[in-house]
Design a protein that fits this description.
The chain has 5 helices and no strands. It is globular and about 35 Å long. It has helices at 2-18, 21-25, 31-39, 52-56, 64-104. The protein has one domain. The protein is mainly α. 73% of the residues lie in helices and 0% in strands. The longest helix is centred in the last third of the chain and has 41 residues, at 64-104.
Length: 105
């Protein structure tokens, strides 16, 4: 019983650490979108500052397996794109994001 509890705390604590914006920034150059987020109306509006995980990683314990899959699949995909395209990839993504947001409204 104690071993299972220790394992659960280690895994859930690891998920918390690996879902922090600072951890995401250690591999991905997401400083540009993060700076945009800090200037947006979403940042600090309700007394909380959203991080990468709030939009990009499924939340809550019932979604734990999905959160692990998201970290593995999306994390590796984003890291490979970062390594291949670097800042140029960011410029293309920003252009695509602006086009997508125009299509939404």
């Amino acid at each position: 019983m104690a071993g299972k509890l220790r394992q659960h705390l280690r895994v859930s604590g690891g998920e918390h650490v690996h879902s922090r914006t600072e951890f995401c920034d250690s591999c991905h150059s997401q400083t540009y979108p993060y700076e945009e987020l800090k200037k947006s109306s979403h940042y600090g509006a309700l007394g909380a500052d959203p991080g990468c995980k709030d939009c990009h990683v499924p939340q809550w314990l019932e979604n734990f397996q999905l959160a692990l899959w998201t970290h593995t699949y999306d994390g590796i995909r984003a890291l490979l794109a970062e390594m291949k395209y670097g800042a140029e990839g960011y410029k293309r993504a920003k252009k695509r994001r602006l086009t997508s947001s125009v299509n939404l409204f």
